[in-house]
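Quick one: structure tokens for this chain, please?
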Amino acid sequence: MASEEMEGIYVVPNRYPQGEYLLMFDPLDGSSNIDVNVSIGTIFSVLRMPEDDRGVDEGDFLQPGNQQVAAGYCVYGPQTTLVLTVGDGVAMFTLDREQGSFVLTRKHVKIPEDTKEFAINMSNMRHWDAPIKRYVDECLAGKDGPRGKDFNMRWIASMVADVHRILTRGGVFLYPWDKREPEKPGKLRLMYEANPMGWIVEQAGGAATNCRQRILDIQPGKLHERVSVVLGSKNEVDRITRYHTESQ
């Protein structure tokens, strides 16, 4: 297994049975919100162990997101919800504390292709590149602007909470590249956050990109690689990607 909080991989000791899968996870996403009682969560991604591999090493984990066999997250809020995909749509399970088990409460989750909500940290506006500024400016212009409709902005600063809202009622989540750190392609971890969340969103009919290409097609080069992330309602993600293409 590999965790966002550990520098290297953790190999299951030989005294335990060895499985066929690799687990990657962010144990506590949104932890900066703990002291203000905002929803936080755990994100996980499951990959298949390469065949004919004589021993697990870090290179076995460097698979693109399209190779995932399962992905999901738990969100800890007013209720504890498990969101899961195994490549056949998205299902939500709610923890029943009396039974001590998760109960299926929603299946075949679908994200609307269009939306009037976007989520982004506006305090970083001065560090965005032109396509992101263009998109947000058009949203802020409202019904009198080129989009012809009013948008609401939401930003929780807890990825599981922001994505859960999008799965529930639509929207788009943006965590773009930041000019302050030109050597870094983004802030979020590709394999612990972007890949599992990107696959969940795609399985629900949405889209996920790094502003230039599909998240799940990115070949990771290292265990803790970072990436820009735009995901959510398909038509909005496609628009943002197009703005970046036009600016090249």
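Residues 117-247 form a domain with the D-Maltodextrin-Binding Protein; domain 2 fold (CATH 3.40.190.80).
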